[in-house]
Automatic annotation (TrEMBL):
Residues 42-111 form the Pre-SET domain. Transmembrane segments: none annotated. It comes from Euphydryas editha (Edith's checkerspot). Residues 114-240 form the SET domain. It is found in: Chromosome. This is Histone-lysine N-methyltransferase SETMAR. One of its GO terms (cellular component) is chromosome.
Amino acid sequence: MNDNYVHKEDGIVYIDENIPGPKEKNNEYISLIELCNSQLTHSCNCGVKCEENICDCLKISGGVNYTSHSESHYLKLYKKNKNVMLTYPIIECSAHCKCSEKCGNRLVQNGPIGTLYVTTCKEKSIGLGLFTNKFIAKGTFICEYAGEVITKSEAIRRQQYNENKRKMNYIFCLNEHVSGGTIQIFIDPSMFGNIGRYINHSCEPKSEIIPVRVNSPIPKLAVFSCVDIFPNEEITFDYGASYLTNSSKSQDLNNGKTCLCGSKICRGYMPHNVY
Ligand SMILES: C[S@@+](CC[C@H](N)C(=O)[O-])C[C@H]1O[C@@H](n2cnc3c(N)ncnc32)[C@H](O)[C@@H]1O
């Protein structure tokens, strides 16, 4: 992982990958740690290049995950020129595979792009935001949204604390709809996090979160641009993207916090996690 970013504020620990949250004395925590310590069982026996219908990792992912043009990799699904709807999980090749480290199915594991910077937003009450100093083409991997992987009880406790203290909320709830139900993963980069923790919400977002797995059942929350992003534009995602979270878009289920994204299609309120 090549990640040279640092936090400018004191009190936040920079981590380049998810870490397990603080110890709890309950079965929920034991299950979470078991999941954190387990590995995916698949691997491939490919040579240098992994190819569709041959590579065992790509077969699980339903085909080629990424396409490459010269030196850059793009999420293949964006070729369809619409927002991503995932049918298969995206699983990258890993250390257990026989293929080369340059096989083409390794992207998110290599770390964020190098053009990101953090600065105060024009709308000062939003606080800091994440920006790029160079053009980012649609479908490009930008960075991970990495933080502590916490239990649902801890997420509820932290969210209530943040609301009571009127603090910013960084908890991302990923809902993956699988046969037999929904799997929820809670990531909180408020105290331990990477550069992704500065991404603000927009009702007209420039990026989307796509779960990507690298040798672990716990997905990495990978941020991909969903439109072209120009130099000095802010990178945002929709905190309430319905296919990933159950954050409410309706006014009566929001937490009353006004959205300041400034878009013409702004919904007016910040999406609110309803676990
Ligand atoms: C994940 S943090 C984003 C980084 C944060 N702005 C900072 O300064 O560290 C999420 C918090 O940023 C603020 N925020 C993000 N998007 C916003 C928006 N569109 N309107 C108002 N506040 C926003 C809210 O306080 C929210 O709880």
